[in-house]
Amino acid sequence: MLSESQKRFDRDHIWHPYTSLENPLKVYPVKATEGVHIVLDDDKKLIDGMASWWCAIHGYNHPLIKSRLQEQLEQMPHVMFGGLTHKPAIELCQRLVELSPDGLENVFLCDSGSISVEVALKMALQLAMANGNPGRNKIMTVRKGYHGDTVGAMSVCDPDGGMHQLFKGLLPEQIFLREPQTPFGCDLESSDKEELEKGFAQHQHEVAAVIIEPIVQGAGGMRMYSAEYLVELRRLCNLHGIVLIFDEIATGFGRTGELFASQHAQVAPDIMCVGKALTGGTMTLAATLCTAQVSSAIGKSEAGVLMHGPTFMGNPLACSAALASLEILTSTNWKESVNRIEARLVSELESARSHKRVADVRVLGAIGVIECKKAINVESIQSFFVQEGVWIRPFRNLIYVMPAYSIQDSQVAQLCKAMIDSLDIDNHFLN
Predict the structure, then answer these.
(1) Residues classed as catalytic
(2) Taking the CB of the first residue and of the last residue of the chain, which one, N or C, has fewer CB atoms within 10 A?
(3) Tens digits of per-residue pLDDT, 341-398?
(4) Which residues are CB-neighbours of 81 under 8 A, at least 6 positions away?
């Protein structure tokens, strides 16, 4: 267990995500993870409804990933990727190309999801310059989106209602269209089509690329929209010669019921970002994939190279973990598991729709969301969830779960019960 002095040091000196050291939120010491459980210092077990921010898709401590990491650790934990290469990186990139939508043939390995977005934006901007279009130096996207916390990624997050609005005016000014309005499973509404056509007509001369989270807008609001929106987006990008980037960091590797969310629309991007679940929640690793047309033009440009190169690019440990995770995913019936979780979430969360505090309930794949009418008191509701034996981390006005695919029906039911029961307590919500 942590000593009291260690807890005080944590409270007084260590930043946790989106917190203040002047008024730190309570944190819960963890000593172990087991399957879909987080084990706290006091031995209390919590069913993890977050899969550690959506990445631990197989649950924790999977024996295959652990064994592959141990083997790689004994052989070669790290070597620089500049001027050198190794088997884990080659095999991982081969596997990513095999699994990804058609046309994505080339892979840039990077440290995190945010960096994979940075690389994608650099690819698009370098491509525009290589094609003799230096005036095409803007990125177009939609509101309510989230693409990461680094400067380039922040610039394509929602500029007004997002987590980075504080930096508006300091970031590159990008072009934002209205977020998709048509719900998932519905034919594209004419207003969405008209909004896209208007945006492309007005801005195509200055746009290098369009970036979007396919089907599900994650940390920007857990919104789910029509697959036909992606079809129309692909058509307009082709028409105007604009690069299409799909940010599959949150949605990739089965989370929505397809291996990649874009496959709901049978649409392939020119550039795709993946991360989070890539290593099964064990190591930080991401990748940016692109078509041969993109890489060829960059290679023939004035610079001649892609201007990026992280220190830990292609880390052998992370690549080995990713290979093991992909092996687990593709050798098991992950789709059946995700469909089972989806059916259970639909059934268990249905009663929340009529609650006085609920604005909407949304489910897609292994994602279940209760959108509340008021913002949530995170510290208060978090304490309640821990008492109930679950780990759920809400944000803004959203209570949601994205559990591991290995979770059992009874555990999904316990998560959903805690979500619904939390709605009845007044101090869980801000006025």
Answers:
(1) 18, 146, 247, 276
(2) C
(3) 999 999 999 999 999 999 999 999 999 999 999 999 999 999 999 999 999 999 999 9
(4) 89, 109, 309, 313, 314
